[in-house]
């Protein structure tokens, strides 16, 4: 039956009025504004100055007219301020000024428009504060999140949650930690608390885990260790078994905090934080992009409930997942909080920004080669590198490699070539960065007051070849070498002329070459010799010759 147009529009208007009613019935704490133009947009960490200016004028609700030729200022190019940013040694003293934007107090706000205006105002104030901090000091900030819509989503998650779990990548926890988030959640409601979950604990050994637990204890923050990947990989049937070897060795020691939590332990620990017996208790998962917020939720659910990706910025809208009738989890999109980082390359190698956003491949690879010794690359990729001497002491053994050398040699070895026949360094850089971000080349940062050299030591793995495999590989290599090394052979010319003799080109009446060819053929292919058949036929003819007469 075909529905009439009138029925459809009646249905639509009923749905619309219902939706309006439900919005107006919401409690004041659940009122949120959303800039329709911003929904579904990407996270913005870097803007051109014009984009930035335009977005700020839009938020400030101001209109500008262009003025030509009146405001021209000549900038001396020799005095250019665009030099590479550096981290200030005195940067830590400003860490208490690295704030996240606050949502305006809802009391006394009567309309959504007014709330939106105040949110924009607060956001602009916050941007000005950070800009002022950068201008007046030598502090260089992380390219932090500049899309207000993402901050609105964080505000929403904070208001819904009873506790916040700040998820940090265990390889470099302080880069991902925002002390101000802890402060802000208490400002919203003094009953709310913040926990630290060091995810990707599978990258750390026992001593490293202990160092970080000691550090967070010393600053009075509750810290838990978890590995979403290990928990996901654990088969459902073996759910009761401990996961890693280290965890198996320590399975009897319940009090050992260096053992990463089992997903059931994590769930019960979160439930135990519910001191007010609120049902359901809501936990917000927040943090930088790519730290494993969604993976942790999937590990807790034992199924893939939310999407996960190795590319940062996968979750774009917050989602609510019900674990059971006592516990609900909120998955928040990843946000880059303001922090002190030397440059954008640092964010890329730490997996916070997508590798595709890379502009200067050498700067990004420098961030890796300055930490990882050349021997690690050599053993991992089976290449030989020319090392540079980083140490001013002339006699010291060079252990590091320059980005150009690494990219060139690695590019050659993988066959990444440009059309001009040169190694494709940008393609090589992307593969190397991927290996670093995904932990195939693992580098872990020490907490303050722990010596980095002692904390993280590289062990160069032999290339997983046992003795027999190594022999086979050597023989193969030798054969390839011998096959290719034609100049070393003494019979090189003879072979060549032999080949032309055997070429068998068809020349009319050239019996010599054909006879030669036949003889050669008979020598190499005996099944082509039909002489014996001819003999047999002649013999038969002789035997039966009387019948022919
Ligand atoms: N080694 C290891 N990798 C992990 C672990 N947890 C997550 N990952 C990997 O980290 C990457 C990012 O995981 P996600 O769960 O998408 O991270 P997210 O925090 O939700 O990221 P956004 O949605 O972009 O904010 C994926 O490639 C995961 O496989 C872990 O415990 N160990
Ligand atoms: Mg996610």
Topology:
Blueprint lengths: L4 H20 L24 H11 L52 H25 L11 H13 L2 E7 L3 H4 L2 H10 L4 E7 L6 H13 L4 E3 L2 H6 L11 H5 L13 H10 L8 E7 L5 H9 L17 E4 L4 E5 L12 H6 L11 H9 L4 H8 L5 E2 L11 E2 L1 H12 L10 H13 L14 H4 L11 H18 L7 H10 L9 H14 L6 H13 L1 H4 L1
Parallel strand pairs: 1-2, 1-4, 2-3, 4-6
Antiparallel strand pairs: 5-6, 7-8
The protein binds guanosine-5'-triphosphate and magnesium ion.
Guanosine-5'-triphosphate binds next to helix 8 and helix 11.
Main location: cytoplasm
GO molecular function: GTP binding; GTPase activity
InterPro entries: G_CP_dom (IPR030378), GNL1-like (IPR043358), GTP-bd (IPR006073), GTP-bd_ortho_bundle_sf (IPR023179), P-loop_NTPase (IPR027417)
Describe the protein in words.
This protein is α/β, with parallel strands linked by helices and 549 residues long. 43% of the residues lie in helices and 7% in strands. It has helices at 5-24, 49-59, 112-136, 148-160, 173-176, 179-188, 206-218, 228-233, 245-249, 263-272, 293-301, 344-349, 361-369, 374-381, 403-414, 425-437, 452-455, 467-484, 492-501, 511-524, 531-543, 545-548; strands at residues 163-169, 193-199, 223-225, 281-287, 319-322, 327-331, 387-388, 400-401. The strands form two sheets. A six-stranded mixed sheet has the order 3-2-1-4-6-5, sandwiched between helices. It has a two-stranded antiparallel ribbon with strand order 7-8. The termini are far apart.
What characteristics describe this protein?
binds magnesium ion; G_CP_dom; GTP-bd_ortho_bundle_sf; binds guanosine-5'-triphosphate; GTP-binding; nucleotide-binding; Large subunit GTPase 1 homolog; alpha/beta; Rossmann fold; 549 residues; Conserved Hypothetical Protein Ylqf, Chain: A, domain 2; two-stranded antiparallel sheet; six-stranded mixed sheet; 22 helices; elongated; 7% strand
């Amino acid at each position: 039956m075909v529905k009439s147009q009138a029925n459809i529009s009646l249905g639509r208007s009923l749905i619309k009025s219902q939706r309006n009613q439900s919005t107006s019935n919401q409690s004041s704490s659940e009122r949120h504004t959303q800039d329709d133009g911003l929904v579904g947009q990407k996270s913005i960490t870097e803007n051109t100055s014009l984009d930035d200016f335009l977005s700020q004028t839009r938020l400030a609700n101001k209109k500008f007219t262009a003025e030509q030729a009146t405001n021209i200022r000549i900038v001396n190019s020799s005095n250019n301020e665009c030099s590479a940013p550096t981290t200030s040694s005195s940067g830590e003293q400003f860490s208490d000024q690295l704030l996240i934007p606050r949502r305006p107090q809802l009391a006394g706000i009567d309309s959504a428009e007014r709330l939106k205006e105040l949110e924009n105002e607060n956001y602009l104030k916050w941007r000005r504060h950070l800009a002022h901090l950068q201008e007046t000091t030598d502090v260089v900030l992380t390219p932090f999140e500049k899309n207000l819509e993402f901050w609105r989503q964080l505000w929403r998650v904070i208001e819904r949650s009873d506790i916040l779990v700040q998820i940090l990548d265990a390889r470099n926890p302080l880069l991902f930690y925002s002390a101000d988030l802890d402060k802000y959640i208490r400002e919203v409601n003094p009953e709310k608390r913040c926990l630290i979950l060091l995810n990707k604990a599978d990258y750390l050994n026992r001593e490293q885990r202990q160092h970080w637990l000691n550090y967070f204890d010393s600053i009075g923050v509750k810290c838990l260790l978890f590995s979403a990947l290990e928990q996901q990989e654990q088969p459902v049937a073996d759910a009761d078994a401990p996961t890693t070897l280290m965890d198996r060795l320590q399975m009897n020691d319940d009090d050992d905090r260096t053992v990463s939590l089992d997903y059931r332990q994590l769930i019960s620990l979160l439930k135990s934080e519910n001191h007010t017996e609120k049902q359901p208790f809501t936990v917000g998962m927040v943090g930088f992009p790519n730290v494993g917020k969604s993976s942790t939720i999937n590990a807790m659910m034992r199924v893939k409930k939310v999407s996960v990706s190795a590319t940062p910025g996968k979750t774009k809208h917050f989602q609510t997942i019900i674990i059971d009738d006592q516990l609900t989890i909120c998955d928040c999109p990843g946000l880059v909080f303001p922090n002190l980082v030397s440059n954008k390359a640092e964010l890329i190698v730490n997996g916070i920004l997508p590798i595709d956003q890379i502009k200067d491949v050498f700067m990004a690879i420098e961030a890796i080669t300055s930490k990882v010794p050349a021997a690690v690359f050599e053993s991992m990729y089976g290449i030989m590198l020319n090392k540079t001497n980083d140490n001013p002491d002339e006699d010291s053994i060079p252990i590091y490699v320059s980005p150009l050398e690494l990219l060139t040699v690695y590019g050659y070895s993988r066959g990444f070539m440009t059309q001009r026949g040169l190694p494709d360094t940008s393609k090589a850089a992307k593969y190397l960065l991927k290996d670093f971000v995904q932990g195939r080349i693992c580098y872990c940062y020490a907490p303050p007051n722990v010596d980095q050299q002692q904390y993280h030591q590289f062990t160069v793995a032999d290339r997983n070849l046992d003795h027999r495999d190594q022999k086979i590989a050597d023989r193969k290599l030798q054969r390839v070498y011998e096959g290719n090394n034609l100049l070393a052979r003494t019979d090189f010319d003879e072979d060549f002329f032999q080949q032309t003799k055997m070429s068998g080109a068809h020349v009319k009446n050239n019996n010599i070459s054909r006879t030669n060819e036949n003889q050669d053929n008979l020598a190499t292919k005996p099944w082509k010799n039909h002489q014996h058949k001819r003999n047999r036929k002649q013999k038969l003819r002789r035997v039966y010759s009387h019948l022919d007469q």
